[in-house]
Amino acid sequence: MTDTAIAPTAELVKLENVVKHFPLRRRGFGRREFVHSVDDVTISLEGGRSLGIVGESGSGKSTLARIMLGLQEPDSGQVDVAGVQVTSLKRKDDKAFRRKAQIVFQDPHSVMDPRMTVRQSLTAVLAQHRIGDGPEREARIVQALREVGLEAEYLDRYPADCSGGQLQRIVIARALLLEPTLLVCDEPTSALDASVQAKVLNLISQLRRERELTMVLISHDLRVVRLTSDRVAVMYLGQIVETADREELFTGARHPYTLALLAAATHVKGDEQVVAQGEPPSPVHPPAGCRFNTRCPLATDRCREEAPQLAEVAPGHQVRCHRWSESRELLAEITGTEPHDVNDGV
Amino acid sequence: MSVLDGPKTITPATLTPDSAPAGTVTRRNRTRALLRQPWPLVAGGAILTVVVVVLLLTPWIAPSDPAEQDLTQRFAGSSAAHWLGTDQLGRDVLSRMMHGGRFSVTIAGTTVAICAVLGTLLGILCARVRGAFDEFVMRVCDVLLAFPEMIVAMFVVSILGASKTTLILALVVGGWTPFAKLARGVAMEVDARGFIEAARALGCSRSFIVLRHLLPNSLNPLMAHAALRFGHKLITVGALSYLGLGVQPPAADWGSMLAAAQPFLSQAPHLVVYPGLAIFVTALSVTMIGQGINARRGSRS
Amino acid sequence: MRFLVRRLTVLVAALLAVSFLVFLIPYLTPGDPTRKILRGRVNAMDIDPAQLESLRAQYGLDRPVLVQYADWLATAVRGDFGYSYTSQAAVMPQIGAAAMVTLVLAVGALGLAIAVALPSGILAAMRRGGPVDTAITTVTQAFVAVPEYWLAPLLILVFAVKFGALPSAGWAGPAWMILPCVTLALRPISYFTQITRASMAEVLDSPYIVGARARGLGYYRTILRHGIRNALIPVVTLLSVWLGGLLGGSVVVEVIFGIPGMGRLVFNAVHNGDIPMIQASMVTIVTITVLLATVTDVLYTVINPTVRGSHVGS
Amino acid sequence: MEPLLEIDSLTVSTRTTSKRLLDGVSLRVAPGEVLAVVGESGSGKSLTALSIMQMLPRVLEMSAGRMTLAGTDLTSLRRREIDTLHGGRIGMLFQQPRRMLDPTATVGSQVAEPLVRHLRMSRREARRRVLELLADVGIDEPARRAQAYPHQLSGGLAQRVMIATALAASPPLLIADEPTTALDVTVEAQILQLLKQKKRELGMSVLFISHDLNVVSSIADRIAVMYAGRVVEVGTADEILTQPEHPYTKALIECSTLRTDASGQLYVIPGGSDTARELDHGCRFRPRCGLTQEAHLEQVCDAREPVLLSIGRSPAEHECRCWGTAEEREGA
Amino acid sequence: MRPIRPLQGAALCIAALLTVPACGSFSSSGGSANAATSSLTIALQFTPKAGYALETDDAFVLAQVGCLETLLTYDFDSGELQPLLATKWTQTSPTAWDFTLREGVKFQDGTALDADGVAFALNKLLKSATPPRAFTPKVVSGVQAVDASTVRITTPKPSTLLPYRVASVNTGIMAKAAYAGRGTDVIKHCTGPFTVTAQKPQQSMSLERNESYWGTKATLAKAEAKFLPDGNARATQVRTGESQIGLGIPSASLEELSGDKSIVVSEAATPRTTGLYLNYGKAPFDNPDVRKAIQMTVDLDAIAKTIYSGTVEPASGPFAANEPWAPKGVQPAARDVEAAKALLQKAGYGPDKLSLSLRAYTERPEMADLAAVVQEQLKQIGITVKVTMTDYAGMEPALLGGTYDLALLSRNHLTDIADPIGFLEADYTCKGTFNISHYCDPAFDARLAQANSEKDPAARYTIYAELAKQLHEQAITVYLVTDKTIAAKRAGVQNFVDDPLARYALTPQLSQTD
Boundaries of each Solute-binding protein family domain copy (chain E) (predicted)? Predict the structure, then answer.
């Protein structure tokens, strides 16, 4: 599925030390508090490759996607996408950039204006970019719909008259109208039923192949990421805690959190010790030291005091953990099992 | 559970999960809304249309000159010549009501229109710009909202003297604030919805986003509010005229007609009943329109 | 409570802004501002031109406007707004008395409104879509369109003149409150019923009602324990807005029923161009309204814990 | 063993259009057993739960069927008895735990409600018991949490609170309607662990509703698969997961694994489940079914609705509603 | 009535709301149904605004309720001065008058009325910031006590009219203690037949019979005076029986009241005339033909019959026919629209050539209708009239500045003292302070000066009559109607007299039976 036939080119997406903290509503004269959404993230992705970003709610992965697309201004850091300095994007260059990078959001119903028909929504995109004239736009739209497996009859429907799966395909068609080189998919299937999810995932990989798209796919579901990504980055509380090529990550993950995710995804019957304890802490007050220390069965005093840095544990495999060298073994001891392959679940 | 292929026809609203898109609910309700158009909207709209048309055509269709007197025909009841009878100077009540209504409705309408446009623009601007500007405008709103409308109006009239313009001005001073608050709220709500961000991601211009997405999606609650406000303003204008602070004689509006008829309440009740009814029916019609719009909105979201 | 501090800051700022506007009234109205200011200070029908200059100096009216404002504010804060042009008496005690009257009137009207609106709103919500709901909704919506200057004379005609059951005008005891309160209550009844109905309907549709029933509370107990309290949150908010609104908004009713309240006071003051009275009443009304809003906000946080500080996660 | 909960041909339809939303659903839950009901959205899982709780929305009516809980007929209960049922004999978990709690009341007071209602505890007693219950479901600092308001809890904590509430009166049956769907995966695993642990401790039965076969696989003793308001297959978890018979079950399992075929494609069930609603005769799965064509059963499937037939080695343990499988068996 | 406290009031209100039927009995206790015959409620037109400061109109209220008394009083019908607190008045020198006080008069607080107290009270009035026009330092130089029962009032110039000044209600005398604070403390400080026992600002006053009154004791034991500025409200009060007497009933309410058998309406001529004022100082009103034309056009009969419900007489000059200074035999101008048109034509104003503005004020309820009628009738002779109505304050600058065309005004010609000289002087002399007609005729001024120095009233009145006739015949002002004051009372009220000068209402003779 992840076709490596596409030759990697130069770096298309490059984020350096990106930081984004959202201020909370100030109360009284107290210190303004911030949600540490994205904390010092550095990512790069070569053209034609696909990157999966995995994390739970509140990990900052969606914020990261928005920063890539210039939809959210980072507090600091460099964002370089498709040769464009996204952080200092001028208004006049905005349209040109949009034609290079597009995004598909989680909930297709919310991203379509309920008062516009599918035709209106799609034509508007072309009109805004001054692409083609009336008949040509119509032709392009019909073509785009066909490409995602929908008939032209959907053009006159309102979003409310389409099912989620259909609508998600329309949204993908809309994003591809501008023929971008980069497509960011933020949880593209998590709002869909299992049978529909497969359909959309198939479509995404197919389009990626046909159009030689560079992709960033964000999901909380390791299996989805595994299907679609060449490289995987795992995020926890605004930080990347582990990043590696797909196979390396799924077989040789070293961060206890990654291992917890893998374990949780397998849904093994029985009473194994759950490897991540407790609840994720608030991103407003991330724990000192290693951010995972409150839930990590391996946490030591050092973990509670000193924040670990991303360490290169193998070529292209970085882990943010003081105890990465022994984590797999120690966890295996605790749970009494070897980490499972995620697909072993059912 | 997340649910997209196929409408979730059977899940009671109480169990609709967070993640369920509004769409599934919307589709069901739209069909229902089509089946059951809110009757207040239809009825209110019909009444208002009649009122407005009559008032527009008044110079041509009014049975007589509203100032024409017949001192021998005072307090006459309904007759072929005077459908609604005559007043204390033998003037035709119907004609006076038609002409008076033009005052009442124009002043209320103009006021609401100005308030709506001004308030909506400021509100949307607040929602778009945010920051200090937003804060400032909202605090100004708070202060103005603290003044009861009648007090502000009386105050302005006392400074500038009673006139149509003063009246409108007096009502606009505080009248724009609810629109600003509402528009800001709605715009922020709409702004936070996915399709605005999607439009940005697709490279749509700001003006396109505001005009084609933000405004149409904010319009319904604003229109409903405007309708409700119109009814309210109609009554307030009448109150000011009633107190002698509004439309000044010899011009008359429904409020001042009521005031003038007060001494004859039991002798010639028609003089009190008809103008009061005119205010009531007109105010009721716009209220119904407002409620209708709200009901339609309510059944959709 | 930091939030309260913030609220109070806004309150003070608002009052400063309003007081400055109010201070400027003598300058904004036609005529010589100095004379007008002095009339209120010296308490004279008019100022002897010969004394004008010395008085001007004595009362510091030759200083910059902002300094004068500070002065004026300092006296105003002590409740001294000078003397009324018409009654020749200090304005503040008169306003105090009038405000009390209006407060009683407003509380009476709102009490009546609540007494009618809450049960009907809740009932309508519980019987949503049925004939009871339609009847309640239709009638209360129509209430909003009834001009009080139409209703009041009709009420007087029926209850005072025809039946002689209630007094027609004046302010001498509880019986005198009934007709004005009924007149004033009509509109709040309408709004409160609609708000109660909408909010109760929303609450009844809320998952936590299902949750509470699943705990075995039973339908009526659930509504009692978890429904009504939640449904009342928006009503409470509305209450103070209305109380403030009635404080100056009952002009027509006070005039028709001859009630010596704030509305008639302001009406007379405006009519007579009684500037000190206008100034003091404006400041009073705004102070009370903004204070009420603050009280509501506090109350709101008390009855609605969700607006209090939230802990995300642990 | 005598089943704890027995549902026999439960049918639910709308009052106005008489459209059947649940059609002849029969389920049995043995004491101490976890029965998982699996299906996609609109299949009728949640509705089944509501029917058992006698909490159907006014617009719907239970038009047929029999339901007994430990021998008591649930359909003929009086209002007061229903109140006792809720929380007293059946505990219930929901998908959005935070939203099922009154936002204006403290957590503790709500956990105490079933104690006071069903166990007739005094307020003080209840308050003490609440802390134990909270600690029991793995909540740290129960005293502090009891004072908290629902919005101050994370999703996982809120679900723990709900579990504490649902189990407060030790009901013999727990209905869990998608209890982990809204939770993060790591937390989901914890909650599932907790449920398993509680079930073992209290020996209660669980009716576990989920769309996610992966989740179900970790907890279920038996599985019932629903499609378009009908149970299409029911059997032990092992059998359903390893030897599914119904084409829909097979497809669902195939989808759930997210495994690609040789060409790199994921398996997709053709058509959409909404088409099933429009059918008024024959097998509801027919338009999406591969088997129909394969086995040349178009006429049969089109004409008659298949019945739930017992298959497999231990009768009554594995049933399937499909002409195709029935045919096979007959043929075999 | 005791003032209600807010909380108590609220509680009572709620209680009352719950028991609406019970309220009937509540209100009827103050009503006529089972009222004690010795008490009564009166609805007054004026609301005291200035804390009963005697230099203001508040003095009228105090006099009306039978509290405040003056040294002398003026009989409106006979035109003569009569003793009240003073029994004798003599001019001891051209600039001094001596007044002998009545013996045995006591204030309601028990202190005796003596010359010292009277001098104190009157000097206080004289020195007030805005002394009443009847008693200003311009016309009175001082008041001294000559002996215990004699008060001397001196004037800067010789004055024959001074006794009239001390008949003005503003010169009422109250006990010294009443003047202690700002305004006047009215509780138990008068000499009159009724004692104020309680008062609620803007609302009402409670009165009791003054048992130690020097004259005839009041028949009523108790009375309540309500201040109701709204005329309709006063009329309603009488209809509902909440008040037994209502003063200043608007003529518009008359037809309603007259239908009620249990109500008696009384009318009394007032020294007040409503006129259409013309701006003499401005074209075209310098042309007598235009003025005449307007005078001939306005239908006085119709106005009197409709707007005033027939309570008033068409005016034939500034004074009512029954006044001693009214010219004899003068008739209201005859209506003749055709002649008026001809006059207008003659003056050079053909049909629709003349466009005038008419100003009127909103304080008097009949003005709006009056303006409408005048506007409509002048249309008949081709004069277009644009009506502007404001409150009086908004209109006065235009009147005094002479920037108006037509104005409707109701003028009292006995404002200060019971002699119309002040009115004639102010309104029609070249230097008149209220000469809004901007009329100036040296001959007129000279004739009026003669009247001022004339001691014999009859001779004075002749001059007034002559001047009044001139004003009417030259149509300086188009006098419309001579006003009347209307009072309504319930049939059970006996011996009520409506004073045209609004000086008294509650009198010792007043009684109430069922």
Answer: 80-433
List the alpha helices (DSSP H) in D168-287: 185-202, 213-217, 237-242, 247-257, 274-278
Cis peptide before C30 (omega within 30 of 0): no
Let me know if residue E25 belongs to a domain. no
Of chain A residues 58-77, which have a CB less than 8 A from chain C? 58
Return all residues near C78 (Cβ < 8 A) that are at least 6 apart.
none
Does the beta carbon of C306 lie under 8 angstroms from any beta carbon of chain A?
no
**Residue E114 domain flag:** yes
* pTM for this model (two decimals): 0.82
Q: Which of A284, A333, A344, A327 is nearest to A39 (CA)?
A: A284
pLDDT of residue C119: 93
Alpha-carbon span E246 to C233, nearest angstrom: 49
B211: left (phi over 0), alpha (psi -120 to 50) or beta: alpha
pLDDT given at position D135: 92
Instruction: Give CA–CA dist C302/D104, Å, rounded.
Output: 9
User: Looking at residue E369, which CATH number applies to its domain?
Assistant: 3.10.105.10
pLDDT bucket at B33, cuts 50 / 70 / 90: very low
Residue C104 within any structural domain of the chain: yes
Question: Taking Cα atoms as reference points, which of A13, A198, A272 lies closest to residue D264?
Answer: A198
Q: Which domains does chain B have, with CATH numbers?
A: 41-52+75-299 (1.10.3720.10)
D and E: touch, per 3+ CB pairs < 8 A? Answer: no
How open is the CA angle B41-B39-C148, to the nearest 5 degrees? 65
Do C205 and C262 sit in the same domain of this protein? yes
Report the distance separating Cα C257 and Cα C250, nearest Å: 11
Look up residue D193 and give its DSSP letter: H
List the one residue out of B52, B45, B2 whose CA is nearest residue B23.
Answer: B2
Q: Considering only the C-alpha atoms of chain A, give the largest distance between any 2 of them, rounded to a whole number of Å.
A: 68
Say how far apart CA E365 and CA D235 lie, in whole Å: 92
Kindly compute the dihedral angle of the four CA atoms of residues A262, A264, A270, A276, in this order, to the nearest 10 degrees. Answer: 100
Domains and CATH numbers, chain A: 11-229 (3.40.50.300), 247-335 (no CATH)
Contacts of D92 (CB under 8 A, 6+ apart): C214, D49, D53, D86, D166, D174, D175, D176, D177
From B14, B228, B288, residue closest to C205, measured CB to CB: B14
Specify whether E464 is located in the same domain as E397.
Answer: yes
Give the domain range for residue C215. Answer: 91-308
The CA distance from E15 to D274, in Å, is: 61
Please name the amino acid found at residue A102: Q
Question: According to the model, what pLDDT value does residue E161 have?
Answer: 83
Residue in E356, E340, E397, E360 with CA at minimum distance from that of residue E275:
E360
pLDDT of residue B37: 63
CA separation for the pair E236, A23 (Å, rounded): 65
Instruction: Give yes or no for a cis peptide into E284 (omega within 30° of 0).
Output: yes
Contact E318, E477 (CB under 8 A): yes
Picking from A290-294, B44-48, D263-267, E286-290, which range would have the lowest pLDDT averaged per residue?
D263-267
| B 100-129 near E (Cβ less than 8 A) | none
> What percent of chain E has a predicted confidence (pLDDT) above 90?
46
Using the 8-state DSSP alphabet, how is residue A25 labeled? P
Q: Residues with Cβ < 8 Å from E329, sequence gap 6 or more?
A: none
D274: which chain A residues are within 8 Å (Cβ-Cβ)?
Answer: 163
Let me know whether C275 and C148 are in one domain.
yes
List E494's β-bridge partners, or say none: E511
Would you give the DSSP letter of residue E274? Answer: E
Chain B partners of E307 at a C-beta cutoff of 8 Å? 88-89
Query: Is 60 exceeded by the pLDDT of residue B29?
Result: no
